[in-house]
Design goal:
This protein has 376 residues and is of the alpha/beta class. It is 39% helix and 18% strand. The protein has 14 helices and 13 strands. The longest helix has 24 residues, at 79-102.
Length: 376
């Protein structure tokens, strides 16, 4: 079955996002970049492009390159210095990518992003449109986090989450996370070929259970989270060793390499991906058992009468996280009410809204069309 998925979903992939991790691009000694590995991967990207594939690259390495350029022996621990080093290194990183892909007569386009860029619907769409236009112009988009302005993102996920969100924004057919290990390993150190339930595996990894201890490292946890976002959207994700010879071509040929994350049976639309898997919730509502069942089992909208609690400061149109009485996340959706209004009407029926608010309101707090039920 796993091989069938590889053959059907990977060999047929036309648009893919490839993420190259810090460890993969780090030289064996000192700061800088492993130019041999980077150029080899650039050659593979060029071959895929020649085969008609659209490839977007998410590349780490800016701070490492900046350290090398500035003669620093170690990565800065001070945030301001790390931002400055990234500013120097980002230019060098793009020069290297431009030279490496230029050998194959390909141009590159630099796109620097922060986590907050994905929280706003208009900016989310602009990201998709910009990258899609670069691909249509036969350029290879090279993405990285904008470390010079994003304080939190310097320590955030080693670009894994950025790659997953980009894959979902583009509705890419596959996300390939390349690192220095052959995939996710079991307790005996053997590669796990296939993960059917990434949510369960991620939960075990966070508790340090079910596999080798290195699952619990930030690097592998962020890769599992990235794989979850893409698999829940209905696309395939793979973790594999980027130093394996011709890894990208072999993966897309269906060869059994790395760990494959089986996608959900239903593909989410771009709008659903933004609501349910991308934008960070501005607030949370807790619902009773009846409301939770109506959302998850009967495909209903969220009504105020089923809401028992609300937290956060949010406005109309912001994304809300919906939890059941046990605290489990069950859905996300766009609120028809601001926080102050919702706290006045929660637990009430819609025929009371005009009396409470002094105006007519929406019957639904979150309409079904603006709601995404999260996987079990």
């Amino acid at each position: 079955m796993s091989q069938n998925i590889r053959q059907s979903r990977l060999t047929g992939a036309q648009r893919l996002v490839v993420k190259l991790g810090t460890q993969l691009l780090r030289p064996s000694k000192g700061p800088g970049l492993d130019l041999v590995t980077l150029r080899a991967l650039a050659g593979q990207v060029a071959k895929l492009h020649a085969d008609g594939k659209q490839v977007t690259v998410v590349s780490s390495g800016a701070i490492g390159a900046g350290c090398h350029e500035l003669g620093l022996s170690r990565r800065p621990s001070d945030v301001a210095q790390a931002q400055a080093v990234a500013a120097v290194g980002q230019r060098l990183l793009m020069d290297i990518w431009s030279d490496a892909l230029g050998e194959h007569k390909l141009r590159v386009g630099q796109v620097l992003l922060t986590r907050s860029d994905f929280d706003h619907r208009a900016r989310f769409l602009n990201i998709r449109n910009c990258i899609s236009q670069l691909l249509d112009l036969n350029c290879i988009p090279i993405l990285n986090e904008n470390d010079t302005v994003a304080v939190d993102e310097i320590r955030f996920g080693d670009n894994d989450l950025l790659a997953a969100m980009t894959a979902n924004a583009l509705r890419a057919d596959a996300l390939v996370l390349l690192t220095t290990v052959p995939g996710l390993l079991d307790e005996k150190g053997k590669v796990i070929d296939r993960i059917d339930d990434v949510i369960e595996v991620l939960s075990l990894a966070k508790r340090g259970q079910g596999a080798r201890s290195d699952w619990g490292s930030g690097g592998m946890l962020s890769k599992l989270e990235a794989a979850r976002l893409v698999a829940e959207a209905g696309e395939v994700a793979v973790i594999a060793n980027g130093r394996e010879k011709d890894i990208l071509h072999r993966l897309l040929a269906g060869e059994q390499l790395g760990t494959l994350f089986v996608p959900a049976s239903e593909k989410l639309s771009s709008r659903q991906r933004w609501i349910g898997l991308t934008a960070r919730p501005a607030g949370t509502v807790t619902v009773d058992d009846g409301a939770a069942a109506a959302l998850t089992k009967r495909g209903k909208s969220l009504l105020a009468s089923g809401i028992t609690a609300s937290t956060g400061r949010f406005e109309r149109g912001d994304v809300l996280l919906v939890r059941d009485a046990a605290g489990k996340e069950v859905a996300r959706g766009l609120s028809n009410y601001a926080a102050d209004e919702l706290r006045l009407i929660m637990g009430q029926r819609s025929n009371q809204f005009e009396k409470i608010l002094g105006r007519a309101g929406f019957a639904e707090v979150i309409h079904r069309d603006n709601l995404v039920v999260l996987s079990e």
